[in-house]
Every structure is written in C-alpha cells, then in structure tokens.
Amino acid sequence: MFDYHVHTTYSDGSFLPQIIDAAERAGLDGVGFADHCNVFDADQSYRETMGFNLDLTYERRRRAIDRARDGTDLRLFDAVEMDYHADREATIESFLEDADFEYAIGSVHAIEGVNVHNEPYFADLPQADREAAVETYVEHLLSLIDSELFEIAAHVDLVERNGALRGLLTEDHYRRIAEAFADSRTVPEINAGRVLDAYGEFHPSEPFAKTLLDAGVSFTIGSDAHAPDSLIDCSDELREVREEWNLPIVELPP
Predict the structure, then answer these.
(1) φ and ψ at 223, to 5 degrees?
(2) Which of 22, 37, 46, 99 could form a disulfide with 54 if both were Cys (CB 3.0 to 4.6 A apart)?
(3) Do residues 146 and 139 lie in contact, with contact meaning Cβ atoms separated by under 8 Å?
(4) Are 39 and 88 in contact (CB under 8 A)?
(5) How far is CA 152 from CA 67, 80, 96, 156, 163, in A?
(6) What was the pLDDT predicted at 51?
(7) How far apart are CA 34 and CA 72, in angstroms?
(8) Phi–psi pair at 34, nearest 5 degrees
C-alpha cells in the first residue's frame, strides 16, 4: 500500500527521516511527501504566517528525498499539496511545470478567503450564508477537478470537518462532484486525516464515497499524516476501509 499524502517540516509536519521510519513500521510499500505549497500573493495566503513556502524550498527537499532513498526499501515520492483557486490557475500551472513533481495534490482550503476550518467565523453566519459558502466550496472543487492540473484532489468534503458547515453538502453536490471526477484525470483520495479525532470520519464520508464509486471513480490513499504515530495509526484504518468499501485504487505515477 502506498500513502500518497504525508507532511514534513518543509510545511507543517515532522522530520522526513521520522516519517520514513513510521512508514516502514506501518508496513507500507511507499510514501509520498506532499508538503503544503501556495503560490498566491502573500496577502491572500498563509505563506508568511505559516511558512508554506515549498515553492522556495522544494529543490532542497528533493535533494533530501534523493539521499533518503539510499537508506530505505520504500518507494519515496517527491510530491506537493497545492492550494487552488481558479483565478490563479496560470500561476499554479507554471509553477508545477517548472517544479516537475512526481505528482501534485490539489486542495481547496478557503472559501472567499476564509479558511474552511474557521468554525467561529462560519458559526456566526446565517444558515443561508453557510449554505452559500458550501456551494462556493463545491464550485471551487469542481473548478479544481476540471482544471486537470492535479493527479489527486485532497479531502474532497473538507467542509465536513467544520461543525458549522457539517451536513450542508447535499446529494446533488455529491452527484456533481462525482460526474466531474468521472470526466477528469484527477482522482479523489481516501483521506484519513481526521478519522482518529473528534470528527471520526474519512474524507470522503461513506455516502459520498458510494456516489463516487457508483460513477466509476477510483481513488488514491492518503493518511494526511503530520506526525509519525498518526501515519502508523491511520495506515491500519486505511487498510480496513479499503477492503470494507471495496475501493478501486490508482497507483501513481502512471
């Protein structure tokens, strides 16, 4: 099993050797380093406050990955998790072409400039505005899929992590997203990033995953782990759900 979505200290995760050691202990065949990256202007992103500047450091990380390959039997992937916005497609495309990662994960992390995880902000909005926010999230996700800039789309029902937005994705949203994936080279991931915390579910949730499966969509696997213990624990969960849901899995790069 390959875990295509882990983070290191090149964004908000743990040291690269610690992640490799955890992947070995988890019995994985390979692990993909997909650190956060944002090429938007600083006032429209978290680049300055969070240090998500892999656009400046990916070559140094690539050298570290190359060195690490000599010390492990794991397959190590040099990848990226890119923040996406339709207005910045040209900038994203140019960067990805220049950087030449083995694969790219695309993510929608914000709705109208507000981080999806900002529960107090969305909790203060009227119901109609929260529903509109979820609709905007879906529109951004559909644009990400249609762009075909990415091999993988991350945590496709991310809004479910936010208690103020949970339950606002509809069957119609599921269907529209599934149809977009069915027509795209981009595939969703089974993401275990919150399966062991209070949210306690995979992304996508089981009903959403069923709609995707019914549309003939395949998946990749990603723990979204930021720490070694999380990677190990999530690997067990991912093995189980892969079997229980009878998931068709795509291996990357093609």
Answers:
(1) -75, -25
(2) 37
(3) no
(4) yes
(5) 26, 10, 14, 10, 25
(6) 65
(7) 18
(8) -125, 65
pLDDT in tens, the chain (254 residues): 999 999 999 999 999 999 999 999 999 999 999 999 988 765 555 566 666 789 989 999 999 999 999 999 999 999 999 999 988 999 999 999 999 999 999 999 999 889 999 999 999 999 999 999 999 999 999 999 999 999 999 999 999 999 999 999 999 999 999 999 999 999 999 999 999 888 889 999 999 999 999 999 999 999 999 999 999 999 999 999 999 999 999 999 86
For residue 61, give the amino acid letter: R
- CA 81, CA 34: separation in Å to the nearest integer? 5
For 68, list phi and psi in degrees, rounded to 5. -65, -25
Only one residue has tokens 């794991």, namely 74
Letter string b/e over residues 12-21, b meaning 16 or more CB atoms within 10 A of that residue's CB: ebbebebbbb
Distance CA 44, CA 95 (A): 17
Beta carbons of 157 and 181 less than 8 angstroms apart? no
Per the CB < 8 A criterion, the answer to whether 219 and 247 are in contact is yes
Please, are residues 169 and 163 in contact by the beta-carbon 8 Å criterion?
Answer: no
Query: Which tokens go with 92?
Result: 């994203």
Query: Taking the alpha carbons of 141, 89, 220, 63 in that order, is the dihedral positive or negative?
Result: negative
Q: Report DSSP state, residue 31.
A: E
Alpha-carbon gap, residue 193 to 122, rounded angstroms = 21
List all residues 6 or more positions away from 143 whose beta carbon is below 8 Å from its beta carbon: 84, 86
